Amino acid sequence: MQDMKSFYTLMMPAALCVLTAEAAPVSDIAREAQAAANAYKGAVVNCDMEWAIDRMYPPIKWTLADRFASRDPRREREHAKRIMGTAGHKESDEVARLRMERNIRALRDEYVRMGRRMKEAGFRVERYIVGAPMAEYILPHSAAAMRAVRADSTRRGNKLSSAENIKWEGGRSRLVVLPTTLWYSIPTEDGRRLRVERKDFIYAVRDEVIQSTNNRNYRGTEINKWYFIDSNTDVNTLRSYFPTLPLNIAQPDTGERPL
User: How far is CA 202 from the centre of its chain?
Assistant: First the structure.
C-alpha cells in the first residue's frame, strides 16, 4: 500500500521584490495548461511514471534528485560533507554536472520501478482527468529567487560570470492550480477489487520571461513550455523558486473515498 500511496501522491505526481502575486481571473493561457496536462492521461493510466520526471519543473527536479541521492547509504556521508561545505575539495564544473545527471537518472529509474511495482501489485488506473483551472498566479522573479536558481545552476556545473551574479534584468513565471480526479482499483484479500476515487491537484508552471546579462536561462526550462509539480511538494520548496507566491494559494478539496 505504501507504493500505491506514493504512486498517486507523486503522479498527481519579491521592485521585483515589492511586487505581489495575485490570483488572476483564469485566462486562456491557464486553459492551455489544462490541455497540456491532459496530454499525459495515457501515461497515468498505464502507470508510466517516467513522464512525471521528464515534465517536472527542472529546479524542483534538481532538488528532488539531490534529496533522493542523499538517501543512498553508499554516498550519504559524501553528500552531507558537500552540503555542509566540509568536503575538503571543491567540485569542478564538469564533476558537478555529471553528478546531477547521475542523480536525475537514479530518480527516473526509481519512478519507473515504482510504476512497475504498482502494476505487479494489481494497482489499476481506471480513469484520470484534469479539471478546469482553479487559480492562476503571475509570479515576478525576485533577487532571492535568482540566488536559489543560480546556486542550483552552479551545482549542475554552469559557471557564472561575476556580472551575471550581480545583475538581473527580471523574469516572470505563471503558476496554475489544476484539480485532478483519479479512479483506481486494487485487489483485496478476498479476491475482489476495491474501487477508489481520489481528488487531488497539480501545479502547472511555465517561465514566460527569463532574462540575464547574456540572455541565459538558469532555470533549465524552455520559455512558455508547461511543466508540472505534484501537490505533495513542500510549499517552502516552491517558494525557494517563487518567493512572490501568496501564502493562501487557492487549492481544491482533496481526499479519497471508496466507490
Answer: 9
